[in-house]
Amino acid sequence: MASVTIRQVTKSFGETQVLKAFDETIADGEFVTLLGPSGCGKTTMLRIIAGFEHPTSGEVWIDDRMVTGGKTFVPPEKRGIGMVFQSYAVWPHMNVFKNVAYPLTIQKVKPEEISRRVARVLDIVHLSQYAQHLPSQLSGGQQQRIALARALVAEPKLLLLDEPLSNLDAKLRETMRFEIKEIQKKLGITVVYVTHDQTEAMAMSDRIFVINRGVVQQRGTPEEIYDRPANQFVADFLGKVDFFRGEVKAGKIVIPAMGGQALPYAGPLTGRVDVGIRPEQLRFKADGSLWGVLETQYYLGDVDDCRVRVGDALVRVIAPGGKYRKLRNGEEVRLEVRDFMVFPEDGSLDEMLEIRT
Question: Residue 209 in 3-state DSSP?
């Protein structure tokens, strides 16, 4: 196991700065996800930790050893890391055993030790029965497990994964995310995981670093980031949310887009604010504080995904699947607001809406 300390790392490609003063610590045995949109700098940071990329400035330490910084640069193969990429990168002409054994073979490890370690790691990733199969005889999920086993067989202190599940279908992604987490817990290994998929990040991580434009917007547990986002970007990137411009007046927030309807508010902000409401924070209720007209319903089996017109605003409501068609489109409804988020008006909402359109 290993800790990772990143001190004031920056990275520029020509005139474009993709990382700005990245300064974070990842604890021994922790599963941390770097989460953000394409181009935010998350993969660049992972490659700097791995040693595949040199930072413009700053230092990277693995445990108490500097691996990047100043005139110091330790090559990837001497950092004690395992790396799994988005592509499986398995050798098509080698069977599963030889693919997994490859790192040990080039290190000239004794054959009996190779057999022992490969057998152990194949058991961990549930591929023991496929040891003599070629990759072409296996599914995409099984091929990704080969790549994972190959990264683990050298018994690295640190495992780095760069969007390893993005090429799999939805069901395989769900299965693999739980398998990777179980392997990490079983081995007690430190993991740094890169993804743009918030569901993956929420399901697997001890902590999440949400990154935008090379800056960590917020760090914390999945619950902290989802329930108490630091800003509108974080709220929007983790989960579904509708934003509305409002104004604090006499213990409530008046929302012009909702025809002047208001939400009770006893918080510290004053004046103009931005309000964020997640679909699951609303429910249909006869004495709800908001009223509107049900426009559409989408039956998704476990839930009924609805759109309600409140004033000029269209509000999304996630109701239990059993609600489907019990209300009719065009029917007047009332909504209970169980919770909502309030942010200072700082221009972020205008920028986000512009990006969406």
Answer: strand
Question: Which pTM value belongs to this model?
Answer: 0.90
Please, what are the domains in the chain? 4-234 (3.40.50.300), 241-356 (2.40.50.140)
With b for 16 or more beta-carbon neighbours within 10 A and e for fewer, the 37-72 pattern comes to eeebbbbbbbbbbbbebebeebbbbbeeeebbbeee
* DSSP letter assigned to residue 133: S
DSSP assignment of 271-290 equals EEEEEEE-GGGEEE-TT-SE
Going 5 to 10 to 11 to 16, the CA torsion angle's sign is positive
- Sheet of 31-35: strand order equals 81-84, 158-162, 190-195, 31-35, 207-212, 215-220
> Residue 270: helix, strand or coil by DSSP?
coil
Do the strands 271-277 and 290-299 form a parallel or antiparallel pair, or are they unpaired? unpaired
**If we measure between CA atoms, which residue out of 228, 333, 329 comes closest to residue 278?**
228
- The CA distance from 228 to 220, in Å, is 10
DSSP for 312-345 reads: TEEEEEEEEGGGTTTS-TT-EEEEEE---EEEE-
- Whole-number Å distance between alpha carbons of 326 and 307: 15
Alpha-carbon torsion 60, 224, 197, 10, what sign? negative
Cβ 10 vs Cβ 17: under 8 Å: yes
**pLDDT, tens only, 301-319:** 999 999 999 999 999 999 9
pLDDT in tens, 86-96: 887 889 999 99
Confidence band (pLDDT; 50, 70, 90) for 168? confident
